[in-house]
Amino acid sequence: MGTRPDITMSPDEVRAFLATQTRAVVVALADGVPVGSVGALALARADEGVDAVDTVDAIEVTLAPDDPLVGLLGADDRVCVIAEEFPDYRSITGVCAHGRAEPVAGRDRPTWRVTLDDTTSFAFAKIPRA
After folding, report:
1. Over the stretch 32-86, which tens digit does the pLDDT of each residue have?
2. Is-contact 62 107, C-beta < 8 A?
3. Which domains does the chain have, with CATH numbers?
4. CB neighbours (10 Å) of residue 22?
5. What's phi and psi for 9, nearest 5 deg?
6. Is 2 helix (H, G, I), strand (E, B) or coil?
7. What share of the chain is helix, strand, coil (3-state, %, to 5)?
C-alpha cells in the first residue's frame, strides 16, 4: 500500500475557499450530542479597514433567531463550522473550523465569530492523476 497524497489546504487556500462560500453547517452540543443547522457564512477580517482575503483570521456564522442552536451556543460555546462543495468528485473541497463561538454584537440576527486557528481541510483536486 502506497503513501497517501497530502490533500490538506494551506492557510491561504483555506481563506480563498471560504471567500467563495455563503453557507455552512454549524454544529453545537446538546447534552454532549452534536446538533447541526445551516447558517450564513462570511469572512471576518483582522483589520476591518482592509478588504483583502489574506487579512482573514476568522469566520462569522449567522443563524435564524428561532434556530435551536442559538440557545445551545449560549450555554456551551464550543462549535464546529463546516463549509464544503462538491460539484464533481475531483473538485470536492471542504474546511472544518473548530473553536469557540464568540457572539458578535450589533447584528440584526444572532451571529458568532469563530477563529481559523484550528481547521481541518481537504481538496480532492490535489490528488495526483494516474
Report:
1. 999 999 999 999 866 554 455 556 789 999 999 999 999 999 999 999 999 999 9
2. yes
3. 11-126 (2.30.110.10)
4. 8
5. -100, 145
6. coil
7. 20, 45, 40
